[in-house]
Amino acid sequence: MSRRPYIAGNWKMNKTGFEAEDFVFALLPQIAGDDIAEVVICAPFTALSNVIDSSRGTRIKVAAQNMHEAESGAFTGEVSAGMLRDIDVRAVVLGHSERRQYFNETDEALAAKVVVALENDLEPILCVGETDAQREANETEAVLKTQVETALANVPAEKLGDVVIAYEPVWAIGTGKTATNELAQEACAFIRSLLDPGAADKVRILYGGSMKPENAAELLAQPDIDGGLIGGASLKADDFAALVAAGDAAA
Ligand code: 13P
Questions:
Q1: FRET label pair with 229: which of 65, 108, 180, 191, CA 20 to 30 Å apart?
Q2: What's the rounded Cα separation, in Å, for the pair 207 and 250?
Q3: Is the CB of 230 under 6 A from ligand 1?
Q4: What is the pTM of this model?
C-alpha cells in the first residue's frame, strides 16, 4: 500500500509571528507545483494564527507542538485540543523528546493526549526514540515498544490509521549526526511491526534527527520511512522547500 509522504517542519521555540509570515510567503511559491507530499508546519503557539492566516487555501497544514489532555480547567500555562481546533490547527506534535526530557512528559499522559487529539480531529504526531545510552545498552527496541504501545493503548482500532509516528533517535536531534539509512529503516520497520496489522500499512512513520536536503532523498527511499520531522533545516524556507521537493519525489 502506498502512503502519502509527510514532510513536517518542527520550528520548536523559534520565530515570532512576523518571522513566521515571512517564512510562509517565501515558501509558498517554491512548493506551488506538485501537491503530492503533505506539508506540515509545527509552529509555536504564538505564531500559529500567523501561519494559518498566511497559508489558508494552500497545501500547508498547521500543527501545534503540544497540548493538554483536559478539555479545560485549572492548568495554568496549558492549551487544550479544543482551543487549537478553534483557530483551525489541524495536527499536534505529542511526546517530543525535548518535552519528555525537560518537561516530564510521560507515556501515560501521552496515552490520554493521543486519544483526545483524535477526538478533536487533530492529527497526532507521536514522537518516540531512544537516547544514546539506551542504544549503547541494546535497549532500543524495548524503549520503542514501551513508548509506542503505552501511548497508543487507548486508541480505537478504526482510528489508528490517523496517527502519525515520528521516530526521532535522541542522539541524532540537533547534533548533525543523522542515523544511517539502514538504522533508521530498521527502527521504523520495528515500530510498524508493533502496530495492529489492520492499520499498520496506513500509519505514516517519519524519521527525525538532523534530516536536511542533502540526506532526505535516501532516507525517504526506505520502505518504512514515509516522511520527516525536521528541526533545524525547517527554519529556512529554501531548505524546507527542498525537503518538500524530496517528499514529492518520494511518492
Ligand atoms: P533536528 O532536525 O534539528 O535534528 O531536529 C529534529 C527534531 O527534533 C524534529 O522534531
A1: 108
A2: 14
A3: yes
A4: 0.97
